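Write out the 3D structure for:
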Amino acid sequence: MVILKSPEEIEKMRASNLIVADILQELSTLVKPGVKTIELDRYAEEQARKRGARPAFKGYRGYSHSLCTSVNNVVVHGIPSERVLEEGDILSLDFGIYYQGYYGDAALTVPVSRVSEAARNLMRVTEESLYRGIEQARAGNRLGDISAAVQDCVEAEGFSVVRDFVGHGIGKSLHEDPQIPNFGVRGKGVELRPGMVFAIEPMVNEGTYEVKVLSDGWTVQTADGKLSAHFEHSVVITENGPVILSRLS
């Protein structure tokens, strides 16, 4: 069941998502060679609690940290550790919080200093595909319109969209209906209505769309070892089109 949010609920979700966006922006400025991913995790949790929020991921289904830090060929759910970032890495930062009864969730991928042209292109296309999907998050459209827009953008550039992990509804729960694949057929799926709030999150691979989950039960890697990028926004559908809740300006 897809839960429609009232204007009052949407304002609370906006507040939650703005905290996420603010912390992600701060984290992106800290990413540089020599930094450990565990240091970024500690900073994210500290900043969330300082703002009166609770990290959404910590303890969720047994996850042990506040931030997901996915480096290079890690698609999603990378666990922060003593790993030291090196020049040329790309790092996906996925962060969520719970604030005043509602969740916020967003992600971005950032370069560690200078990176290859191929890596920059992958990040560019992944972010562009997110906004192509968001453009289709309009009342009267279908869920498949979002999915197809993402897929078309990605595949036109020779990349692939991950099938095994998808976006989701969000609100009083971190994951609500519906699931939002990054592949699909226009005109298919749930009809979009004002008050729906979605976490749209393309996960895009340089090579095959196939992935594998490591023995820790969380870390998802590309099956071929090639790079992956991830961008995410929480978006509300309104009568006047999509509004990004997790964007600072």
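Residues 143 and 190 are 5 Å apart (CA to CA).
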